[in-house]
Design brief:
The structure holds 2 protein chains of 2 kinds. Chain A is mainly alpha-helical. Helix content of chain A is 65%, strand content 0%. Chain B starts with 5 loop residues before the first helix and ends with a strand. By secondary structure, chain B is an alpha/beta fold. The radius of gyration of chain B is 18 Å and the shape is elongated.
Chain lengths: 265, 171
């Protein structure tokens, strides 16, 4: 295989890939995909302050993704770096939570998506600070604080929109109707999650559900929003199954490296 | 005659001095040693050192620029350096030196109010503790935006002198 082919080839993740690699990829992908979505707001947010905020949130998410993708590459042991893993995988080999890939919609959609994910990721990374895996615990120690800061921002907007004007409340209710169903995936642990939890690498996801629901219920009460009932799982990022819009997100994110393999600037 | 036990200490001191000359690319009034991101300097040979650097925010775009500037400054000081990324314990705004806090204030950036770095405190409202205006010292200030021009800053405004100012976030 020539050097160009080696750079251009599509990376495949399979059930035989090392479990730690597959687990860390999941963590990384949720942040990478969310960061890419948030980046789409740059220059388009409803006010300068929110443009700054969404760009900063994107930076945090992509920063976490870089730390995690680099570690995933080391755990895989095939010499793949963060860029290989970000730009050379196709849709079925991405393992993000599908809520992260949902299109931005209006500001209410983006803020609600952010709030639901930040609240979940704060529980997850707080638990990961106690991981038996020292590298993951170190990454989580940074992520935990950044997520807490981000959550305060998103929760503040959920309250402001929900308890704001009839228009802002309606918009937030529409966002809730569109996005809530993706939250059941957060706690739908599979074999890999259980294996990582029993090794002490990851927390038992079932233990994160009650604190997440408490936080969401508290903020929704202030925002005068109802907490909807749980809905069955539609898609599974864990299994590499995504929504239709995800392909377009990857096409934009990966275009340059696919067209000009290994390009640097 | 060179005192063999003093030589590593002298080399480490030279490396520290070189690192002190490296400015934060986004807040040039701060040295990276003021910022508290140099974790350790260890002599590993007659003219070689290992330097532990910790990033501030996970996504701070200045991290790589700082790394390159450190390598250059150490090389200019005659130190062959190996730079090691240290993630734990996580950097906090409490890592800022006393001199760093003074330099920020004199540059017009309000230093972090409480060196919290605690997750519970981060979840509380941005306006829970008043931030002193770096221009007129008034405590009648308000947060305009919790995010600013760099990951480490927020935007505030003074209700007395009416000047906007940047605030170095507590994290």
């Amino acid at each position: 295989m020539s050097a160009a082919e080696a750079l251009a080839g599509t990376l495949v993740v399979c059930a035989r890939s090392p479990p730690l690699f597959r687990y860390v990829l999941r963590l990384a992908d949720t942040n990478l995909v969310l960061g890419q979505r948030l980046g789409e707001w740059v220059g388009h947010a409803p006010a300068l302050e929110e443009d700054l905020a969404l760009a900063n949130l994107a930076l945090d998410a992509i920063g976490r993704a870089r730390l995690l993708l680099s570690y995933a590459g080391e755990a895989e042991g095939q010499g793949h770096g963060e860029d290989d893993l970000a730009f050379r995988r196709d849709e079925p080999h991405f393992y993000n939570l599908v809520l992260a890939e949902q299109p931005n919609g209006d500001f209410a959609h983006t803020i609600l998506r952010q709030f639901l994910l930040d609240a979940f990721q704060l529980e997850l990374y707080t638990a990961l600070t106690r991981s038996t895996d020292a590298r993951l615990a170190a990454i989580a120690g940074k992520a935990e604080k950044e997520l807490a800061y981000a959550l305060r921002y998103a929760a503040g907007w959920v309250v402001r929109l929900g308890d704001g004007t009839p228009e802002s409340h309606d918009r937030l209710e529409q966002a809730l109707a569109a996005l809530w169903r993706f939250t059941s995936e957060f706690f739908a642990a599979d074999e890999l999650d259980f294996a990582m939890a029993s090794a002490g690498v990851a927390p038992d996801l079932r233990l994160l559900e009650a604190p997440w629901r408490d936080r969401v219920a508290g903020v929704f009460a202030e925002a005068t929003l109802p907490v909807p009932p749980n809905l069955p799982l539609a898609l599974s990022g864990r299994a590499g199954r995504h929504g239709e819009a995800f392909g377009r997100l990857l096409a934009e994110m990966q275009f340059l490296q696919r067209a000009y393999p290994g390009a640097q600037w | 005659v060179v005192n063999p036990s003093a030589a590593p200490a002298a080399l480490e001191a030279r490396a520290w001095a070189a690192l002190e000359s490296v400015a934060d690319p986004e807040i040039p009034v701060l040295s990276i040693t003021d910022l508290g991101i140099v974790r350790y300097v260890r002599a590993t040979g007659a003219a070689s050192v290992e330097v532990g650097l910790t990033p501030t925010y996970s996504g701070c775009p200045a991290t790589e620029v700082i790394r390159a500037a450190c390598a250059e400054a150490l090389k200019a000081a005659g130190c062959a350096a190996r730079l090691v990324e240290v993630l734990a314990p996580a950097w906090s705004s409490a890592c800022l030196s006393a001199r760093g806090r003074e330099r920020l204030a004199s540059y017009g950036i309000a230093p972090p109010a409480v060196p919290v770095g605690r997750v519970r405190a981060l979840l509380q409202s941005a306006d829970s503790a008043p931030i002193a205006c770096p221009h007129c010292a008034s405590l009648h200030t308000a947060c305009v935006s919790e995010f600013g021009s760099t990951p480490c800053k927020a935007l505030h405004r003074c209700s007395d002198c009416r000047e906007p100012f940047e605030y170095f976030k507590c994290i």
